Amino acid sequence: MNPVIATHGLTKRFGGKTVVNHVDLAVPAGSVYALLGDNGAGKSTTIRMLTGLLPSDGGRAEIFGLDCWAAAPVLRRRVGYVPEKPRFYDWMTVKEIGWFTSGFHAPGYLPRYLDVVQRFRLDATARLKTLSKGGYAKVGLALALAFEPEVLILDEPTSGLDLFIRREFLSSMVELAGAGRTILISSHGVAEVERVASHAAFLAEGRLLLAAPLDELRRRIVRVRLRFEAVQPDGAALGQLLDKEVSGRQWQAVLLDPDRAALDALRQRPDLGDVEESPLTLEEMYTALLARYHTTVPPAASANGRVPSGESAAVSPGDEGVRK
Question: Which of 203 and 171 is assigned the larger pLDDT?
């Protein structure tokens, strides 16, 4: 099945700096797809290209097979978008901005918007300029949800929201996906997104480190802990070594795509004890991938978007979503 959202070698430069560097994404229909990374990782720039607000300098961004830049007017009828810092006519009230926006949508938009406003416990008569940061963010979310788009693209959507509303909002994303809509969420709050995401992609300095369904990520990235008597195991022989820690005779490593035969052999070694394997949280995965990235990409390469010949730009070649 063709992905609903896809990028192919997507690249964007500002001046001499590459902020999105040959990113390949494939977002399937009905997924809650988390685009994860620290501030400056390239998430917002990627989203601006997907929403037709910014042309690419290389590669291609598509939604429903349509070019996001060339077909932007058509796609805006099917794709909802909430930026990290939405801006409205602040002299309007909460209800008035919904009425104004409803003029661009089919009948039924305003009642749905007012229903979401009530659910978010917003005062419909309050002027937008009087709202808190969280209240302002809720208005942006309400405007997007009332649209009932086929695809919803959200850039840091829970920024400024209180804990209860954040959880309620993220749960509603699962319901929307269950109804057949496709959700792309950009966030640096990795832990809170893990509760609802079906897929995740990790970005660092504009590069894609890894992208896969969450179930696959949990199989592919594991932590191995053990106790050794004299000789430590060779972590690199067990899979791609992302991180390693040794404390006394306690040894642990984070592995990408572990070698199952090598792990089984490890368990048979008489000089090793308490061998345990466990999955990682999404936040732990990102920390390990990022640490590995920074040890393999020279600072000069990460600054200008170029990788010297023979250097790896990401953590591993081969599978979809893991770039060289």
Answer: 203
Query: What distance in Å separates the CA atoms of residue 322 and residue 58, rounded to the nearest whole number?
Result: 19
Specify the DSSP class assigned to residue 56: -
At 34 the pLDDT is 94
Number of H helices, E strands in the chain: 11, 14
| pLDDT of amino acid 133 | 78
Taking the model in full, what pTM does it have? 0.84
Overall CATH class of domain 1-78+149-205:
alpha beta
User: Side by side, which strands form the sheet with 250-256?
Assistant: 240-247, 250-256, 221-228, 272-279
**Dist CA 252 CA 231 (whole Å):** 14
CATH architecture assigned to 216-282: 2-Layer Sandwich (3.30)
Extract the tokens encoding 240: 């791609």
**From residue 158, how far is each of 50, 122, 168, 268, 317 by CA, in Å?**
20, 16, 10, 48, 33
